[in-house]
Specification:
Blueprint: E1 2-6, E2 9-14, E3 17-23, H1 32-37, E4 50-54, H2 60-68, E5 73-78, H3 81-90, E6 99-102, H4 105-111, E7 116-121, H5 141-148, E8 149-159, H6 163-173, E9 176-182, E10 188-193, H7 199-207, E11 219-223
Length: 224
């Protein structure tokens, strides 16, 4: 793995996969991470939220989560200790003031306690163009996520070729599913929540956001 630099932009590359993006003074990434964090905007106002990120990487989603929910307690789970070391050394991860847990996301879910208002899953395995979800997603991951999600919370999964299979599993556990597509990317970011969550409603939330509003032209929202 490595840090690539171009001008004032740094990217974390893991197994030849574009894993995290950082530009000093800029929060929005204008790519997939904006879509993963966007559902935080759907959450009802709350004094202090709890947000769980499975697959922390270099902290791109965590940086957005911190901007969208400044008072939130944010927990990030990352399997690879070297990823965290590079993020701390080059991507200002520690400035986000999140709790970092080094370990396997499934094992962490199995022993987790308490509930979260948003659970953002960005876990992939593989190399280069052959990345995919591990075999524990969607099950037992979705069952474990449901047990840890607060009422009115959202569960987000960043998917590629497996998006139909993951969406089918989500429908068994949740009242509404929204798909977010990102211009020039193959990813489908799936958002699960209670009845009332729709693509149009989530789009309005993003349009009104001072953090993510500028990313709206590259995002499309569809109720599934």
């Amino acid at each position: 793995m490595r840090i690539d630099r171009r001008g004032d932009t740094k990217t974390l590359v893991v197994d030849e996969t574009f894993a995290s993006f950082y530009r000093s003074g800029q929060v929005a990434t204008h790519c997939v991470w904006d879509a993963i964090a966007a559902p935080i905007l759907w959450l009802a106002p709350k004094r202090r939220r709890r947000i769980l990120i499975l697959g922390l990487g270099g902290g791109s989603v965590a940086r957005l989560a911190r901007a969208l929910a400044p008072r939130a307690e944010i927990v990030g789970v990352e399997l690879d200790r070297e990823v965290v070391r590079l993020a701390r050394a080059h991507l200002e991860l520690d400035a986000l003031e999140i709790r970092v847990e080094i370990g396997d996301a499934l094992a962490w879910l199995e022993r987790a306690r308490g509930r979260f208002d948003a659970i953002l899953e960005d876990v992939f395995i593989g190399h280069g163009d052959d990345v995919h979800k591990p075999d524990w997603i969607p099950e037992p991951a979705h069952r474990l996520v449901r047990a840890r999600l607060s009422r009115g919370g959202v569960f987000v999964s960043n998917t590629l070729d497996e998006h139909r299979r993951v969406a089918r599993a989500m429908r068994e556990e949740f009242g509404s599913i929204v798909s977010i597509e990102i211009e020039d990317y193959d990813n489908r970011v799936l958002v699960a929540g209670d009845a009332g969550l729709t693509g149009a409603a989530l789009r309005r939330c993003v349009a009104a956001s001072p953090v993510l509003g500028e990313s709206l032209p590259i995002l499309s929202f569809r109720t599934r």
